[in-house]
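Run log // design_07
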């Protein structure tokens, strides 16, 4: 089974990438195929709401969306990670998720039954808003969301430092989520 981790942060080797990398490494150690997909360096334009995907059978915009969309559709599990941007998810990540939703629905594809949840990284505040915003995407996509001992949130980013590894409680929460996700993936594979 394959799990992808989409990094919404544009910072190279930053806290969000660290947190998603840790989650994917833990899944890989349990036998899952994993792939980290940073949005850094990719052009993902916002959805135009034009419904051209309904007629064309794919998004009409020409950017890096189609390649990421293929990976999303092929994955059994999807973890998205975002830093907190003014109590919200990073704009490139939301542009991607909005388009995934429109294109999937308008082309007869579905994310229903895929498994995953978000991981949010921030310095002081806005975590819960960002976490809830991303959870709503999983719900509207009919995905299965494994829980954890707390919300999948890591405190980090003091003055732009890569310091997510210092939030021991946050990392334990991520580990617990990953273990629960692995359990659900295995159970779904036997159906």
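design_07 sequence
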């Amino acid at each position: 089974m394959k799990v992808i981790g989409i990094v919404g942060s544009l910072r190279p080797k930053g806290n969000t990438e660290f947190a998603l990398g840790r989650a994917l490494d833990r899944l890989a150690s349990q036998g899952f195929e994993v792939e980290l997909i940073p949005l850094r360096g990719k052009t993902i334009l916002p959805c135009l709401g034009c419904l051209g995907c309904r007629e064309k059978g794919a998004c009409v915009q020409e950017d890096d969306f189609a390649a990421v969309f293929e990976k999303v559709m092929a994955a059994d599990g999807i973890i998205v990670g975002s830093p907190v941007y003014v109590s919200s998810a990073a704009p490139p990540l939301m542009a991607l998720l909005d388009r995934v939703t429109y294109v999937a629905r308008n082309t007869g594809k579905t994310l229903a039954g895929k498994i995953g949840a978000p991981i949010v990284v921030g310095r002081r505040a806005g975590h819960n808003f960002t976490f809830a915003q991303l959870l709503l995407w999983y719900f509207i996509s009919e995905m299965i969301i494994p829980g954890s001992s707390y919300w999948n949130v890591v405190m980090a980013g003091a003055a732009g430092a890569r310091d997510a590894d210092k939030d021991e409680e946050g990392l334990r929460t991520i580990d617990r989520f990953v273990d629960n996700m692995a359990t659900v993936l295995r159970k779904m594979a036997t159906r």
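The beta strands are 2-7, 33-38, 77-83, 115-122, 153-155.
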